[in-house]
User: Fold these one by one.
Assistant:
Number 1:
Amino acid sequence: MKYAAKRLSFPSAILAGLALLAAGCAAAQGSTAGGAEKQASRQPDCAAAWSPATPYMAGSVASRGGVNYTAAFWTQGNAPEQGQAWQAGKRCRPAAQAKAADHDANFPPNTLKFLKANTGLDGEQWDNIMKLVNKPEQDSLEWTKFYGYCEDIKDKRGYTIGIFGATTGGSNDEGPDGPTLFKEFDASSGASNPSIAGGLARAGVHGSMQGKILKISDSAKVFCDKIGGLQNNPAWRDAMWNTFYKVYIQYSVQQARQRGFSSALTIGSFVDTALNQGAAGDSGTLQGLLSRSGNSSDEKTFMTAFYAQRSKIVDTNHYNQPPNGKNRVKQWSTLLNQGETDLKNADAAVQKVTDWEMK
């Protein structure tokens, strides 16, 4: 499916390399925190924990103390670190650590650091937010596949691009974020004086600003093929998140914190509304909905009212094709009622609430 509607730094610095430790001192001194994280990311996941009540056939694998052990022969009740029944293997990542690493792997390291510092949310929480956002936009939870997304969805907003649907602008979008995206791409690519023209040139596409609208002169095929080719470009991904933050995330976090709210579910709900209906402006934007959602300081009470207000208009004004909009809001409201407000250890819950059919 397609991105539904419209709208209205972070630093591009590359993480410093880890200091190498002398081989003779490595065991005694350990590693830096960053080194430990990288080492852990290379470790296999831990098998099921060893249990004294479980019989193990030869070749069975169990973990204990962060190490995977393989049974040399049938055994039961013999601790892996004792006796000859077990052969020690490599150190392994506990399941919770492996799970967190899986979420974090969807983000560039500098993006994770920036999001944590500026939103208070970690990789697992942002990964779940992006899954909830991408379902009604692309009918998929695999949001990382859409950095190179490009399409003219005939909504008079120009081309729709990337993981949050940046647009080049048109009669229905006279304040597009596409120009900012290309300028950020130029900056992330190392330009000392970044410009929209510079970003277009780096992408290998042609266009120019006509007022606030970015008019693309290439054919749709040529333009979208070039954007698709940026799918795995690190500078493009960095620019994508930089623009996403400036246009939608920053405002959404501010609005949540002004009301005393900081949960991942609330911030994610505001971000989803902002990119789908606009951050600020008319009554249908995030700003307009917040003004009609009451003044309760209780987060659940306020968000319940917010979801009710959004449900009234989410399938209007070309925001979404009915009934996709109401299902979009229902994802968030259901998680609220289930108490999944921190979006931690919520993989199964997110999978369940996104299991609906796009129209």
Number 2:
Amino acid sequence: METKAWYYRQKQKLLLTTSYLAIFTGCLLNIPAASAIPLKDHVHIFNRDIPFQPTNNLVARQDAREVPLPPGSTATDGSADLTFYGAECKMGLYEGSFRNRGGPVDTGPGARWEGYPLGSRFIGPEPLVFPDNKCVNIRDLHPALPNQISAYIVTGYCECRFYDHEGCLNEPGQGGFSAYNREDAALWNNGPDDNTLESFSCWKTSHFDDFNFCSIKFSDNPSTAIGRPVSPLDLLKPKPPGQVIDRRYTRDDMTNSPTRLEGETDCQRMPEGITFNYYKINGCSCRFYRSENCENDGYSFTDGNPGKTERIYGLQQDLKSYRCRAPFGITWVPRDDI
């Protein structure tokens, strides 16, 4: 780790020296200071931030062609941080640990990129610009990231293959790996891929072929559902046992039909006659609605991932329906129903 920190400090010194030399040269040649160091689109040479690119304005040269790059940002001030949850394909690449916080060495803000490898229906451009398996060289996203990535995250309905060479040209047996709804905030602790990655390609998938079943549990008394008191008040003043409602959805419940898409259930009614104080989702991601038939204008929120998600008290009470899908997101807590 000391070696990496030393290299980082040398790189910062080199950047500073180069900047002073460029300004001095500009003065000698009577060049305006603003053009002594050519910067484009407010790319800052010290914190190396690039504002969020909402369309395919950010381009790179490949084989003498200008090619669009996925929309994303290298900003380190939190202004363009993504929420790594949802069906849309998202990726984060970091020079240190996740968002360069709490890394193994003091690397300052560190280089990073967060964005949409397959484009975004919310911010553009059109999905056809980023077809499946489109190769992206990491240096085109941020010149300081190739062979410097020590943490990453990939979420959504996509899988991404990382390579230790540009052009996504690794042969079998060479370095790199694939990631589907996966993260690693410390690559230096987990195998040989730390500081080796140079390119990646992604493709759409929900891994529905690997799906078996998922479950969801509702209750008006969390202590009954969990099987133990969840707060001191439950010991001092126990509540009535209440109801516990278990529901299970198999692969057959999510196969394609006239009333649903592949990988999702039909619209389900919320349990009636209970106060909504507890739910647990194992192995799927569920969309909840304030409408009775899962209409989009009644959409409220989505929760659940490939692992276990458990919520108690303070829950929304006006929910009337839900629909569960093949899971996306990071498994922070393992399932407890298998």
Number 3:
Amino acid sequence: MRAYWQLTWAQLLLFARNKNMIIWSFFLPIFMMLALGTFMGKGGNQFSMSVAIEDKDHSTYSKQLTTMIDEKAGVKVKRIPKQEALKAVEKGDVSIFVRFDKGLGDRLEKGKAYPKGEKESIRLYFDKSNPTVSQIGTTVINQAVDQLNKKAINYHPAVKVAEKDIQSRPLRTIDFLVPGILSLMIMSNNLNGVAATIASWRERGILRRMQGTPLKSSTFIAGQITARVLLNSLQAVAVLLVAYFVYDVKIYGSWLLLLMIILLGTLTFMSIGFIIASLSRTPETAGPIAGLISFPMIFVGGIFFPVRDLPGLLQPVVKAIPIGYLTDGLRGVMNEGATLTQLWLPTTVLTAWFAVAFAIAAMTFRWDVK
């Protein structure tokens, strides 16, 4: 037990003296969060579309319609002439161009059905090569026109729809990203960091000198894990404090449960890192192997976007790897206030991954290169 605590303390001292490790482990996740938070904004509205409008009618109705479009959430209206607007649509600077022709106000003033064969009073110009933007843009414009049409003919609906928001807590983009950044930090620090460090120590003969002592491989691995668990806990707290004070990111669940999931994630990826280090003869081979394993997890682990948006072909892969369960567990606690009972699946899978990986790491651990 004494050897275990001495190893843990020695590793913490090594961390404290390694300036590069402090910069990459502490400041990189915070910088990433600040960069993504600044780029994507604090708000929860992820929809953004620019609409160019040319008003040839200059009636009360055309001005009212312009105001209605401008008031749509995420829509920015620019008033520019046709030729300039068409070029902006071609370049992608404007999502859609709307033109109100003369006679629009007269048609609405009459309040009669639109006669067949008569020219349309409103024209839409958009780029069909971008179907998502064009579909959303036409829907937004058509909704505004429909509202104005109904108002002009004094339309009274026979049936109304009541909308109820079942999300009790507002979820913004940054609220979704912070748990993902924590998950990425845990995976990178432990899987990539451990694999390269242990392989380097083995090549330099540090582990060979330890082998001459009564130290067991399981004790050595346990000491490394404990030191990194403490380090990751400090890193997570630092990231969460910055997220709270800068972006007002709240943790709705238990801090104790959050730290427990961070612990499980650290144990899991450290054990995998030890397996990679045992299979690699040099740090030059350990780094690429660790990168080959961790890099795809960034895209299929739900770090930056929901797992449900991934193709169906990748869903079995997502359900088999630990990063997705770590991210789900962190988001469950932070964004939903989930309890341990509700997070039984992520915690069970992470525990199973840790138990199997630690057992393999202890059996395959090598003190020497040979």
Number 4:
Amino acid sequence: MTKPNALLLTILFSSSIYANDFEIINTFDSEIYTEAQPVKSFIDEFDQPLKSGDSAFTFNVFELGVKYKNFSFGAQSRYNYTLEFDPDTALFTYLEKNDLEFEKRNYRYLLKGKQSTSHGIFFSYDFNLLDEAITVSPKVTYYQSAHFQDAVVDGTVFSDEIKGALQTQYFFSKDILFKSFTPEQSPEGEGYSFDLYLHWKITDDLRISFKGLDLINETKYSGVGFVNGITTDVPFTEKGDSIETEPSIRLRTSAYGREVDYSFEHEARYYFDVQYRLNNRISFDIYSRRFYKDTFIQGNVNYHFNENWRVFTGYETNSQAFELGIANEYLGFSVKTDDLDLDRAYYANINWFVRLVL
């Protein structure tokens, strides 16, 4: 597996030889967003007042590398987790975990979860067009991974009884649902992703940019555990003039050394930004991003308190989060959340970047 520390030594050695041509780059971005429950409750007890919602995610990436003229390369570590669920599933979970009364009805039970951890190396190149007014930067990342989950559970559950009709497709490196079929050896995975960045300087005061992450993302694993199957309310027995059903369970698993090869994919994420400089002191940003079914739109105001530095603040829809940060061309830091009390927060984000020009 690629080790960022080993790559760092290469980076530092290379930059000492070609000091006038290189810059060291470091970025870190970590965000978590939940619906239905605040982040802490969503992960733990699910015991806060229930809100409407059908998704949750966390995206985390750390990069350390160098840039030589238009070419960049370095080490990357990622942890991504996404979850889609039906609001009825959130209600079922809330009632179950808090020992509350169920209605006598079928609850829709739908969970779609993807999680992966990876470590690798990235390469990117800046193509400058139209006298450098437009910059197009494709980026390819090759990585290795030993930890992932890919699960779909879909069907219905009747009240709080062990009755229902569910279909399960579950592939994993560690069995966290059934806790019985974890492979004896961790799966081995290799994969790649493709990102695309576009920046257009329309005028000195107006710029737009686009970013597509994981436009292509695929990891091929070997030695993967799995549980696939269905539960149904058949067979049935006749009792007088009524029919009584019992659940029937049919599952195929990776028990007894039946691990398989599996191809895992993450869905793409899209960003579109507009930046406008009003005067020497004030500028505005409008950010939009699309993750799966969720669209986030944010407006920022920047105050440039000298030639290089700016402070900024903004508000984002959907997450209802406020952002506060400080940045210049070479260094930036920001935090964004909907509540400073993290026990009540549904969204939290920390971001920094460093460019050290040598």
